[in-house]
Amino acid sequence: MPLAYRSFVRLHSPNPVAQKIAMKETNKDNKQLLLIDDDPNLILLVKDYLEFRGYRVTTAENGPEALEILERGANTAKAAEIPDMIICDLIMPEMDGHAFLEKIRQDSRFSCIPVIFLSPKGQSQDKITGLITGADVYMVKPFEPEELVARVESSLKQAGRLLKRSTRIHSPDVTPVQVPGNVELTPTELKVVQLVAQGLANREIAAKLNVSQRTIESHVSNMLHKTGLHNRTELTQWAIESNKLLTI
User: Fold this and answer.
1) Which helix (H) or strand (E) is 127 found in, with range?
2) DSSP character for 177?
3) How far is Cα of residue 241 from the mean position of the Cα atoms in its chain?
4) Of residues 1 and 144, which shows the higher confidence score?
5) Are 242 and 176 in contact (CB under 8 A)?
6) Average pLDDT of 202-229?
7) How confident is the model at residue 87 (pLDDT cuts 50, 70, 90)?
């Protein structure tokens, strides 16, 4: 039995104390997750664990099937049919995780959905590529289910904070920032500004992208220079107003 499955089976073993604690934490505001993986065993185990923790989970075996699910959800009258988060395997037939993520990031209906990549590739460059492509979290297989739940909860909270900040910035009481229209950001800068908008400090962004804090400081400094803005708050406001976060 692969190690990834062993960890799930171990945590799924009967444990009254663990079950009692978990049941106290099952109020997740009925959040909807879309889980994409071509491994039926992993789908079954992860879905079962996430549902036990209070989430609603829809599954797909590949990228095209997941896109069909998203399209059906977008065409219904219920906003709840669009997932609050996507958990996606990186290596899949027909359409890999990178191609799937590129598709949804180009669609304004789905571009703001947080995405967690699951991958057996654990090299630093693999993680950096996944994050720059647009993933919010990159998790290496095998992993513990508790870590996945923690990542889901953290990403959903960050998405909630970003939504509140976006709502506040689009308030008529807030004066738009002035930035030249020809400013272009690199893919790495787009990822950094997304994380800045989520409220992460430079050291937290550095840890997430697996680079030095000085590198992140350099990216932020370059973006401030390009835009003529004065601080991270103005940078976040400009990124939201100009829909830069939707291009990631």
Assistant:
1) helix 124-133
2) P
3) 20
4) 144
5) no
6) 88
7) very high
Summarize the confidence of residues 22-38 as an average pLDDT: 73
Our CA angle for 215, 157, 174, nearest 5°, is 80
Which of the four pLDDT bands, split at 50, 70 and 90, describes residue 106? confident
CA distance 191 to 205: 9
Nearest alpha-carbon partner for 193 in 248, 129, 139, 156: 248
Tell me how far apart the terminal alpha carbons of the chain are, to the nearest angstrom.
37
Structure tokens at 219: 């990216």
Determine the Cα–Cα distance for residues 65 and 103; give it in Å rounded to an integer.
Answer: 13
Question: Cα-Cα-Cα-Cα dihedral of 27, 31, 37, 41, to 10°?
Answer: 30
pTM, 2 dp? 0.66
- Report the distance separating Cα 31 and Cα 1, nearest Å: 31
As beta bridge partners, residue 36 has 60, 88
Average pLDDT score over residue span 43-55: 93
Question: What domains appear along the chain, each with residue ranges and CATH number?
Answer: 3-156 (3.40.50.2300), 175-247 (1.10.10.10)
Least Cα distance to 53 among 83, 29, 32, 23 occurs for 23
